[in-house]
Specification:
The chain is globular, with a radius of gyration of 13 Å. By secondary structure, the protein is an all-alpha fold. The protein has one domain. It contains 6 helices and no strands. Helices cover about 70% and strands about 0% of the residues. Helix 3 crosses helix 4.
């Protein structure tokens, strides 16, 4: 049964523990490319660096390319309800929360694909 991790660090350590961390990175690269927002995460990227770079990317998208940001959320299939629950008063915190929602959705895709293939 899929259990949603409570935060980014737990999610990334769970992905590593199940040997699906590389699949998670590949899924993110694939979906960002589908949204025409290429990201250059090397497959050797550490979980901490992944978290940091994703946060920065989301922050820049929210601030400078909002339509592309919305398109990315649509392509990744992040829950609209969860996005609406977020407090957008602080962009740095918002970008961090959205990065977690993106990771959570991507992890869900990878986990289910691995479990039911």
């Amino acid at each position: 049964m899929f259990i949603v991790p409570k935060n980014t660090d737990l999610l990334l350590s769970e992905a590593e523990g199940e040997n699906l961390y590389l699949k998670l990175i590949e899924q993110m690269i694939k979906d960002f490319n589908l949204a025409n927002e290429a990201i250059d995460f090397p497959l050797s990227i550490s979980p901490n660096e992944l978290k940091l770079q994703l946060h920065e990317k989301i922050y820049r998208l929210i601030q400078y390319k909002f339509a592309e940001y919305l398109n990315l959320l649509y392509i990744i299939d992040v829950s609209e309800e969860e996005i609406k629950k977020l407090d957008g008063s602080d962009l740095v915190i918002l970008a961090e929360q959205v990065a977690f929602l993106i990771l959570k959705r991507e992890w869900q895709k990878v986990w289910f694909r691995n479990k039911y293939r």
